[in-house]
Amino acid sequence: MKRLETTFFKLRERNEKALVVYLTAGDPNLTTTLDILRVLSESGVDIIEVGVPFSDPTADGPVIQAASQRSLRNGTTLSAVLDMITSFRKISETPVVLFGYYNPVFRYGNARFARNASNAGVDGVLIVDLPPEESQELRQYTDRAGIDFISLIAPTTPTGRIRTIARASSGFLYYISITGITGTAKPDSSSVKKEVKRIREVTNLPVVVGFGISTAGQAADLSRHADGIVIGSALVRLVGTHGTSRKLMQIVGSYVKEIKNSMRMKR
Amino acid sequence: MKKRLPDKKGHFGIFGGRYVAETLIPALVELEASYKSAKKDRAFTRELAHYSRDYAGRETPLYFASRMTKALGGARIYLKREDLCHTGSHKINNTLGQALLARRMGKNRVIAETGAGQHGVATATVAALFGMTCRVFMGTEDVARQSSNVLRMRMLGAEVVPVESGTRTLKDAMNEAMRHWVSHVRDTFYVIGTTAGPHPYPAMVRDFQSVIGRETKRQIMQQEGSLPDFLIACIGGGSNAMGLFHPFLHYRGVHMIGVEAAGAGIHTGMHAASITAGKLGVLHGNKTFLLQDDDGQIQETHSIAAGLDYPGVGPEHAYLHDTGRADYVAVDDDEAVKAALFLSRHEGIIPAMESAHALAYVMKLAPRLRKDKIIIVNLSGRGDKDAGIIAARMKERVA
Questions:
Q1: Residue A49 known to be catalytic
Q2: Coil, strand or helix at B235
C-alpha cells in the first residue's frame, strides 16, 4: 500500500482524523525546514505538505506570499527541496506531499520530476494551477512513478465536476473551505459539513479541509466533518516570526501537538 | 484547411489552456458559455457596434503618413489611428465588449489589472457608462510613472488599488487581480485587458479587438486597392497586435511583425521580450513564452513602456511565432523614444511609448523597402500619459 493510503487506513482504524500541515520549503532556509519536518513528524502530524516556492503565487494570501519571497531570496530551488526530502526520508516515514505551482515543475521537466520526486520519497503532488483538463501532461508520469495526484475542490465546484476531478486524482482530495486565497478568511462549519457530504456522495477518496484554519477549536470542529484538516498559513506565520530563534522548534512542536490533541478529544 | 483556433480546451497548438486554481474554473466555464451565446446574439453585436461607433468613435481613420514616408524614403506608411479612440487607446474596444457581457451575465462589479493605465482607464470608463463598481489593480511602480491615468481612473469613480508585491508592475497587478477574483468570483467580472490569461480570455479579447483589422482591411482596399505588405504592432500581452493581425491571417502575402520591448537591450537582461528571449512556461492561466530563470521563477522585466513591461505574451502570438506565420522582433527604450519624437515632429501625432516601439521598427524597415510597398502600423494609443517620461529622458540627454 502507498504511504498516504496506509496513513488514512490506520487513522480510520484508530477513529482519528488526519492533521495535515503545510510549510514553505526554504523559509528561512532548507536546513531549518528539515528540522521543522522532523519536529512535525514527531509531534503527531500525519501528512506534511512541503510548499515549493514560486515567484507568482496567485492562490496564496500575504503570509505564504511573503514566505515564498523569503525562500526564493535564499535561492531555494525544486531540486534542493527534493534533496531535503531525501534527507528527511532517512529519519521519518511521515507522508510528504509536494505543494506548489506548475511552472517550476514544468521547467524542471515533468518526467524527470516524477522520477526524482519518487526517488526522494515524495508521496503525492498537489499543483494548484493544474486542473484535470490540463493535468494529464504531468499525471502520466507521476502515476507511473507511484506518486499520488491530489486535487483541489472548491465551494464553487459543481457536483458533476467533482466526479471528474476525483477520477483524475488519488491519495486524497483537498476541499478549499473558503471562496478565496490561503489564510485570509475563516471557514463556516455548517457549510463545510454540507460540502464534504456532497463530495462524499461521488467519491470514496479521503477528503481533507483547508484554507483559513488556525486554531485548535476550528481544527476540532471542522475535522468532525472530514477525514482531516490542513494547517497552512498559521504555521508559516509562526516560522516567519520565530524563524531564526532557538525556540522555533519548541514553539512549532507545541502548536501542532495542541491542534492534534484537540482533534482527538472531540472523538 | 483553415483550422479554427483555439480548440475546445482553449489551446493554440501547445500554447494557451486553462491553468488556474479550481475555484476559478466554474467561473471560466460560465464565461465561456455566456460569451459563446452572446457572440451569436444579434442584439448583443448590435449594441456593441452602437457603442463602438457612437461612444468610442469608431471607425478610426487609416491615415497615410506622407511626411514620415518621405523622410524615411521607402515604403508607404499608414497609421491605424487607435489613438483617436475614446480614452486614448484601443483598449476601449475590448472593455466595451466585456462590460456588455458582464451586464448580460448579471454581474455589476468589475475588476481589472493595468500597466500603463490605458486598460484601467478604459475599464473605469465603461464601468461609469454602465453604472458598475470598478476596482483596478496597478503596481506601485506604474502608479508613479503613469500618474495621469491614475487620476483619470479616480475621476471616473474607480478605486485604484496600488500593488506592492513582487516587481510592482503589470505582472503583479495581474496576480493581485486574480487573488481578488478568487475571493469574489461569484459576483465579480474580471475584465482582462490583453490576449492572455486562461481560456476564453485570449480568444475573447482577440475577437473584440479584431474590429481593428477588419476596418483596416476595408480601408486599405479603398485607399490603395490592395492588401498591405506589412502589418506592424507592438507586443506586451499582444491585444492591439492580435486585433490588427487576426483578420489578415489567411492572406499569405501579408507579413506580420510584432515588436517587443528590448528595454535597456536584450544583452543586458533588462527587457520584456518574451518571444525573443523567453522559454516555454505557465503563468496567469496559460502556457506561453515567459521570461524566467532555469528554476521556473518569473523574472523581472524592464521597459520604458509600462504597457509592455510584462514577462509573458499571449498564447496565440506564441503560436504564430512557432508556426512562422508572424515574426517577432525587439526594439529598445532609446529607439522607442526616438521614434516617438520622430512621429511627433513629422506628423504632429504624439504616440504612446508602447506604440512607439512599433514605429521604431517601421523606421528600420521602411527605408529598406521599395516605394510601392505598403506598411500599416497600429498606432495603438496616444502619448499624453508619457510626456513626463519623455521630458525626463530629454533632460538626461542634455545633462
A1: yes
A2: coil
